[in-house]
Amino acid sequence: MPVPNPDYRPNWETLEEHHAAEYERLDKEADAVMEQRNQLWESLGSAAYNTSETVKALHTKHNELQAQCAEHTEQLRRCFDTYRHKTIQDAARAIFERFDPAMSALSKTSLSIIDYEQFTTMEEVNRAWIRANEVAKQEDAENRHSLPVGQPDGLDIFQETKNNTVASQWQIFQAEELHPGWVRRFDSEHVHTLITIDQRDGEYHICFTVDPDPSRSGSMGVQHEIEALATTMYKRALNDFKPEKPNEKTGLSYIMSELGKSTKNFAKSYTIQPEQFHFYIHHVPNPHFPEKFFRMDMDYSFGEFRDAQFHQHKVIPEIIQQAYKKTTMHDANIQTVNPLGLPDHREDDATRYVR
Fold first, then answer.
1. Distances from the Cα of 276 to the Cα of 204, 234, 270, angstroms
2. Domain boundary residue among 143, 178, 201?
3. How many Å apart are CA 224 and CA 298, to the nearest integer?
4. Sign of the CA dihedral 215, 216, 221, 225?
5. Domain presence at residue 6
6. Residue 199 shares a structural domain with residue 329
7. For a FRET experiment, which of 26, 75, 95, 189 has its CA 20 to 30 Å from that of 298?
8. Nearest of 261, 173, 158 to residue 204 by alpha carbon
9. Where are the beta strands (DSSP E) in 129-269?
10. Does residue 175 sit in the same domain as residue 91?
11. What is the pLDDT of residues 219-262, one digit of tens each?
């Protein structure tokens, strides 16, 4: 059922004309102030110009005029996005119809995947619009900057066979787990990363996919942080924890359960060794950088992985590439691990309206 728009203005056209006229007037005034400053620069010279009270006053005036122009620009936007629409649904449709058809394939399907009836406020609409733009830009980056699919060095790692188990899941690593005590602690409180594990014949191939949002990925661009992630994964293997569903032989919890079972053997015969762990890092494509996939060779000493050597591959296993596309921080079950907790489903307002 359509939700009335509390910000609807019957006189939105009059408001639009007013703000457009005021913007034009103020913009011309700002240009005139800038011209006065340019003339003073030519007449005074740099030394006198930088100390002139008249110039400082003109600079202040220009900033004030620009701020007023920005306010009228915002009101013009609201006239178009909000004030003219009687319902939230009408506003949402008008906003989502603004996708540039040449920008992304998402624009062609945006009207069919958005459930407009679930919007109840303009804040929800705006958040969904921002998120949709992020998805469109990411899709465009993937089309232009993705690595070709293939098996690095001809190995069948991260490829489902009869002799292995592969699973992926987003996880949150708390700083206390990555950097116990004060040693090598970074400012970030936690790190989000998508972990893909390929378990086979006593070997564990573990890939960390870096979240492209720096606010979530923390310090994963720092070598010591990556080494701390590898060390933490190995330490988890030495802990005897149980999965939520002991009989379910799929998913990350099962793999980690198998690692836990190996702990008992480790305590007796030291059968699980750091050499059984092989680490990789995956940087997803974004509008500014191409996709990258590295093997990380590390030494294990003094209870941690150190001295990572990065070997870049020109191809990437399809499972690694698709894992990020199929599950994102916005709609995945994010697992807060301490050391391995239960899934905590966190729903993002900007995507829960997508069917």
1. 6, 10, 12
2. 143
3. 11
4. positive
5. no
6. yes
7. 189
8. 158
9. 164-174, 190-200, 203-210
10. no
11. 555 788 889 889 988 888 776 334 444 444 444 555 555 554 54
Q: Which long-range contacts (CB under 8 A, 24 or more apart) does 61-68 make?
A: 61/33, 62/30, 62/33, 62/34, 62/37, 65/26, 65/27, 65/29, 65/30, 65/33, 66/30, 68/22, 68/26
Strands, E assignment, the chain: 164-174, 190-200, 203-210, 277-283, 292-301, 304-313, 333-337, 343-345
Q: Give the DSSP letter of residue 165.
A: E
CA distance 87 to 259: 54
The answer as to whether 5 is a domain residue is no
For tokens 């992926």, name the residue: 168
List CB contacts of 213: < 8 A, sequence separation 6 or more. Answer: 329
Is residue 3 a part of any domain in this protein?
A: no
- The range of the structural domain enclosing residue 35 comes to 12-143
Same domain, 278 and 174: yes
Rounded (5°) CA angle 173-175-178: 70
- Are the C-beta atoms of residues 313 and 293 closer than 8 Å to each other? yes
CA distances from 279 to 157, 316, 329 (A): 11, 14, 22
In a domain, 276, yes or no: yes
| Distance, CA of 293 to CA of 310 (rounded, Å) | 9
Closest CA to 81 of 175, 7, 159, 161: 7
DSSP 80: I
Output the pTM of the full model.
0.61
Shared-domain flag, residues 158 and 128: no
Alpha-carbon distance of 244 to 196, in angstroms, equals 19
Q: Helix 12-44 crosses helix 53-78 at what angle (to 10 degrees)?
A: 160
pLDDT tens per residue across span 177-198: 787 765 544 555 678 888 999 9
Do residues 166 and 311 share a domain?
yes
pLDDT on residue 242: 41
Nearest alpha carbon to residue 326 among 196, 228, 176, 219:
196
